[in-house]
Write a structure and sequence with these properties.
The chain is of the alpha+beta class and about 375 residues long. The protein has eleven helices and ten strands. Bound molecules: phenylalanine.
């Protein structure tokens, strides 16, 4: 019995001083494992007399239980210590300054487009999209551009290789094909729920041209409104675009005029000019004695409506096309269009915008 008490004290002390899960496990094997000391003593019970066996057996079991439960509590104590150590070591010091990071800039095209979308979105336009690679019908024919029209000539349009049926796809030369796709889709919706239409279609456009004011790829935003005849007229077109240029250039009284022009897909057609001065070679937008052309527009040609299956007696609308680069150059004083696509980081650092910064210059529509 004394031996057992001594063993018990020895093992309990060893458990208490075990300083790791591994040490504890070693101890368990050496005491309670197959060849462990307590297990060994259990095996000797058979040699004892029945009374001794009962008494010693009970005492031995008590030692075994005491050691096993001491091991359990030591084990969870060790785990707690480990967890606390880990929590302390892995604390994030939120007061440390952030590490310097290379900061990107928004390209002026993205910034300008965001501003345009914000203004026209507030007016109730939603965004529509179409493919960059178009067929002849959507890019030309449906827009009342007949086959002999100069816009179709090779020098303007990028053609893709001939297809099996002899036709050739084109890189869209403007965003106007999205008008056609949107009107067709509206007509395809059985219950006429597609009408009225109020969409803008921003995107890439392509023309085979390159100089200080032309690049083979550029961006436009198309606008299209279609509603029942009598509900949409030229006055709405003018009001909408005047409001747009005032909000975009942030000049409340910028003078605007509409000059008769020609586009095959609008009738009547106009080009919109805004007031400016060019004193000393410097362009300034606002009241002045000069005019600056900024976009093309007009009432949707009835032939275009008909080409989309819309009855021109029942519906009419207006459309406009804006060059995004041109608006960016005018507002942010960027002199050469080609630099937009040079991918020069110094240029982007100079003309680009800090992302996530609320566009400070955009104040929305005039109330
Ligand atoms: N699609 C014309 C262009 O690319 C612009 C435009 C659009 C004009 C809509 C009138 C109406 O030049």
């Amino acid at each position: 019995m004394d031996d057992l008490n001594a063993l018990r004290e020895e093992l309990l002390a060893a458990v208490e001083s075990a300083d790791s899960a591994e040490a504890l496990e070693e101890l368990r094997v050496s005491a309670l494992g197959k060849k462990g000391r307590i297990t060994g003593l259990m095996k000797t019970l058979g040699q004892l007399s029945p009374e001794e066996r009962r008494e010693t057996g009970q005492a031995l079991n008590a030692v075994k239980d005491a050691v096993a439960s001491a091991m359990d509590s030591r084990k969870s104590a060790l785990e707690n210590v480990e967890l606390e150590g880990q929590l302390a070591a892995e604390t994030v010091d939120v007061t440390l300054p952030v590490r310097p990071e290379a900061e990107g800039r928004l390209h002026p095209i993205s910034q300008t487009l965001d501003e345009i979308v914000a203004i026209l979105g507030e007016m109730g336009f939603s965004i529509a999209e179409g493919p960059d690679i178009e067929d002849d019908f959507h890019n030309f024919t449906a827009l009342n551009i007949p086959p002999e029209h100069p816009a179709r000539q090779m020098h303007d349009t990028f053609y893709l290789p001939e297809r099996q049926d002899g036709s050739r796809m084109v890189l869209r030369t403007h965003t106007s094909p999205v008008q056609i796709r949107t009107m067709q889709a509206a007509m395809a919706s059985k219950d006429g729920s597609g009408m009225p239409l109020r969409i803008i279609a921003p995107g890439r456009t392509y023309r085979c041209d390159s100089d200080i004011t032309h690049t083979p790829m550029f961006h436009q935003v198309e606008g299209l409104v279609v509603d029942k005849t009598g509900r949409i007229h030229m006055g709405h077109l003018k009001g909408c675009l005047i409001e747009f240029v005032r909000a975009y250039f942030e000049i409340a009284d910028v003078p605007a005029r509409f000059r008769p022009s020609h586009f095959p897909f609008t009738e009547p057609s106009a080009e919109m000019d805004i007031g400016c001065t060019r004193k000393g070679g410097e362009l300034k937008i606002g009241a002045g004695d000069d005019w600056l052309e900024i976009l093309g527009c007009g009432m949707v040609n009835p032939k275009v409506l008909a080409a989309c299956g819309i009855d021109p007696a029942e519906y009419q609308g207006f459309a406009f096309g804006i060059g995004i680069e041109r608006l960016a150059m005018l507002k942010y004083g960027i002199p050469d269009l080609r630099t937009f696509f040079d991918a020069d980081l110094r240029w982007l650092k100079h003309y680009g915008f800090v992302p996530l910064e609320v566009p400070t210059l955009f104040r929305g529509l005039t109330p």
